[in-house]
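In practice, a research group might receive sequence data for several interacting partners and want a quick structural hypothesis before committing to experiments. The following worked case mirrors that situation: the sequences arrive first, and a predicted assembly follows.
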Amino acid sequence: MNIDMGQFLESFFEEASEHIENMEAALLQLESSPGDGELLNTVFRAAHSIKGASSTFGVKAVGEFTHVLESLLDRMRDGEIQVTSESTELLLTSVDVLEGLLSAARDGGADPENVQEVTEKLQRLNGMEATPQAAEAPSAESNTPTETTAVYDVTFTPSPEFFHFGLDPLLLIRELGECGTITDVQLDRSKMPSLAEMDPETSYLSWVLTIETERSRDELRDVFLFVDDNTVIELEERIPDPEPEVATETETAGPSDVADAPAAQKQPKAATRESVRVNGERLDEMINQIGELVIGISMVEQEWSSLHGGAESAATAQLSKIVRDLQEQSLSLRMVPVAATFQKMARIVRDLSSKLGKQIHFEVSGEETELDKTVVDQIGDPLIHMIRNSVDHGVESPEDRVAAGKPAAGHVSVRAFHQGGNIYIELKDDGKGMNLEAIRKKAIDRGIIREADRLTNQEICDLVFHAGLSTAEKVTDVSGRGVGMDVVRRNIEELKGSVTLFSEPGVGTTVTVRLPLTLAILDGLLVCLGSEVYVVPLLSVVESFRPKPGEVKRLANNMEVVQVRGEVVPILRLHEVLNTKSNVMDPTKGLLVIVEDHDSKFALLVDDLVGQQQAVIKNLESNFRKVDGIAGATILGDGRVALILDIVGLKHLTPKIDPPGQLVA
Amino acid sequence: MSVEQDITQETELSTDGSQFLTFTLQDEEFGIEILRVQEIKGLSRITPIPNMPEYIRGVMNLRGTVVPIVDLRAKFAMPEAEYNQFTVIILVTIGDKVMGLVVDAVSDVLNVAEDHIESAPDLGAEADTSFMTGIAKSGERLITLLNMDELVDVDGVTLQTGS
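A structural hypothesis for the assembly, expressed as tokens:
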């Protein structure tokens, strides 16, 4: 049989990294509530799953390491080893090692250097309160009262669909064997049909395994933690040997434990989230097709109404509603919660603060807020950069804080929330804030502003996003390594978002990142020019209006301007920039759309406003090439293509087309 | 029907030749490799792209993807023709990109044996023949075979992102 293991391996790694995320999250929570047994259970289950899968896939190093980790976790779970800050620390390090081992196995790189060291530490901690290897091999006379050897009859009846779940009874039996010594195995093959009737993918067998073990009933049950619901596991303890009658009774499996079995198995089910892995490309294709469906429906609607003299059809209206709902749902498939990113931040705050000797209370809220996957993937680095800034430069040392009359522990929070079609992520610290005067001085030094410029505090804060202005007085290991806030802003703007910062000396700093819900859709203002429709990204639009005759003026350099509430804004005739036809030559008969990018404003002259619409963005590069002044294209309700204007690009197009004579034409 | 018969007959005859889709522009016949042809479509609404050479007519919606359209008459400096119900767009693939060519009408699919293809005539420095791979003879017909990659690469305004 020739099976391509590659794809299974890939999904193993994906799942393992999910388990690692869960472990990390639970461990971080465990720090604040060490008594929570359910958290330890979560960590244990994750480690257990990784261990099981890694031995199936032959990723040995991972399997061995998780085994050590798992046995320690198991004893912690039973309360034999106390949960302390040191043990949590060690567990977190182990999670890192595990991650390293997994990526080494996946990419063929070297294993992390500290594997051996951490393994020994784990073993030492595990051995501290028990005889070494006690959990591994039960010796004949290990007889502390809590760890007496007991004999169990384990009846294991896999469901007929057992193999369909990718399970292997042999692996489970072997794992059970690791818990103690299997003294007797009885195979029940009474359900096995004749060879002709047998379906090789159905499980017909069941076993009664007699095992001598020091482990508890629950631990044995944990071996079967991940079997499907229809598989029956019965555990019956044999009363110690002197009672011979009981021993004979074991020939038939005792049903006494049945009621208990399903309850024990339901527990882990509740904790798992149902999810299906889908190739991102296929998802996008489907979303595209549904977009087409929406256009198709509106074409049907138009045709119907032209055939029936403008009458509406109830059927198409209903169909159109369904299809629009479908489109909305399809777009939501790309949405993932920001929780994983926030968790990474929590880890960084924790590690950094202990490294820097700072006390920080980190608070997270709104982690269930969903964003487009592409956005979530790309927002991680900027956020982590900013949280490092907060911890390193923002929050003061405990002594300084107390001296400033603040509580010794700093407070850093990250919050995600929805507002008006956008997602906001707000990072807040109650640290020393930024030295606004120092920023101003530096900006003057660098020639960014002039000495005479009078800036508001907000304007000074905005300066930190300027390239080449880093306020870190000393370069530390942590941040201030040259990657500044200008990179953060650029990254966020690439995601069609924006970032603002406000800092109050002595009180703290707040950074707010605004992000679009998705990159696939853009809120646009539809305008017409000649016979075409163009989309202006709503983000850049300040306002639109039809100017009164006196408001439009021509300056000496032949530049047209319009006065808006005292402000003079240059006019850009869109048809001249794009070299197309226009129906309106007189600005007072057309429409001016005032747009801005971050440092300038200008007014676009178009024929008229068509409306406002959410546009599904298609890029021109996929079949053509980049076009100056055009950000992409979208497909309108009637099936035709409309171009999306690139406001920044349009501005750069202007100098090319500026001969004074052209206005006459 | 007859076209199909022709194809089968000719496939039997020639084993080393290749197949071309032929179309007309201003009474002249042209051919492009059939493997490059994705589909043939009737004319639909084309949205012009600003600041492009005249032969790039714009972009159209092909089932949700935005595809550029080149007018071959304009490309070959032929007199412009009114688009009508017979005007068709041949969608061709160039690398991983798709492009539409506006032509007067599609004729048929032609099998041409290797030895029936003559290399493009050298017309001196005046005429650029780089967009031709050769001329095919089929009975009385002379068919100009087009080199898709060169055709859209002639003056830099192409599907390549460079320049």
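Before designing any experiment, note the following. The two ends of chain A are 76 Å apart (CA to CA). The mean pLDDT of chain A is 78.
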